[in-house]
Amino acid sequence: MKRLCCGFLMCCLAACTTLPPTPVPYLAYPAQSALPEAEKTLLIVLPGVGDSAASFAQQGLLAALRAQPALAARVDVWSVDMSFPYYQQRLFLPRMQADIMAHAQQRGYRQVCLLGVSLGGFGALLYAAKHPTQARCLILFAPYLGSEASLDGIAAAGGLAYWRRPADLNERDERYIWPFLQGYLHRATPTPTLFLLYGEGDRFAPALETLHPLIPAAQRLTQPGGHNWVVWRALWIRWLTTHGANFL
């Protein structure tokens, strides 16, 4: 396995020291209909490092969703301002549950999908590892999967199928996502459904190949390009066309 840039999660420590607000802020983009929440899908968007809750709309992904009339009528979007300090200070899981998912449940949503970009993809996996039945699908755009040391440990074991969970593993460890992912090798109908979207030249691409045995080919979308919104917007449009009607 090729190496990732060492310390991806630590690269922003100097710039990300402000205690994040409580509750977590988010931008809401309601569906273009008056359907009750129980009849709609809630798409929760988690941004990457350097992005914000506004990025989903600013980069054209909201417009692409709204360009699909059937989806525009039934999909609410909450783009969450879950910035790096939430991960740095181990606040992601409790704040995601208390401020976002509990609120969604109170509002009556029955179908929730998580869309995570880069570090947000890691967040989506982390949340699903802790609460595996709360989201119908995870849409992962070039997700961060862990540090060089963590990924080298999987490679040294011979791959994810042979990796063994440490006895002391807990949710504060970035490897917490791996037993959850490992379960996809053994479950006939895993929950939630995983979708993986990334550029073939993405710096995370070698690590993302670790997920290929877990995810059917039809649920993996790639194209030329790197770790950027140009690639992700094009992949999102393809995903909406091929899978949107069935999962949103």
TrEMBL record:
Q: InterPro entries of this UniProt entry? A: AB_hydrolase_fold, Hydrolase_4
Highest taxon of the lineage: Bacteria
Q: Which GO terms describe its molecular function?
A: hydrolase activity
Indicate the segments forming the Serine aminopeptidase S33 domain, all copies.
103-150
Q: Which UniProt keywords apply?
A: Hydrolase
Q: Pfam families of this UniProt entry?
A: Hydrolase_4 (PF12146)
What's the protein name? Alpha/beta fold hydrolase
Q: What is the lineage of its organism?
A: Bacteria, Pseudomonadati, Pseudomonadota, Betaproteobacteria, Burkholderiales
